[in-house]
């Protein structure tokens, strides 16, 4: 198993949403260049799934991974 990449699946459709890669120098995970743009609106951080078009909520963290999937997903939102 490759420990330098992590796949994040869309909680709405189950397809690949984005990927994280490990930066050895910074000791942190960050989104790969081909991941959708992380955006911000009135409800917070989100990405738009490239497969189903749903809004996928993210939350910021203080750990080695700067963002994680939000605890509540509104899969009815396009």
Key features?
7 strands; mainly beta; 44% strand; 3-stranded antiparallel sheet
Low-confidence stretches: none
What is the number of independent domains?
A: 1
Which strand order do you get reading across the main beta sheet? 4-5-6-7
Q: Helix content range of the residues, please? A: under 10%
Mean pLDDT: 87
- The rounded distance between the terminal residues' Cα atoms is 34 Å
Q: Summarize the biggest pleated sheet.
A: 4 strands, antiparallel
Question: Which class best fits the helix and strand makeup?
Answer: mainly beta
SSE pattern, N- to C-terminal: EEEEEEE
Percent of sequence in beta strands: 35-45%
Name the overall outline. globular
The number of E-state strands comes to: 7
């Amino acid at each position: 198993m490759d420990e330098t990449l992590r796949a994040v699946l869309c909680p709405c459709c189950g397809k690949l949403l984005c990927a994280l890669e490990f930066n050895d120098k910074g000791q942190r995970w960050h989104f790969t260049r081909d991941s959708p743009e992380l955006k911000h609106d009135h409800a917070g951080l989100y990405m738009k799934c490239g497969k189903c078009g749903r809004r996928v909520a993210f939350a910021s963290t203080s750990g080695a991974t700067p963002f994680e999937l939000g605890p509540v997903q509104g899969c009815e939102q396009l």
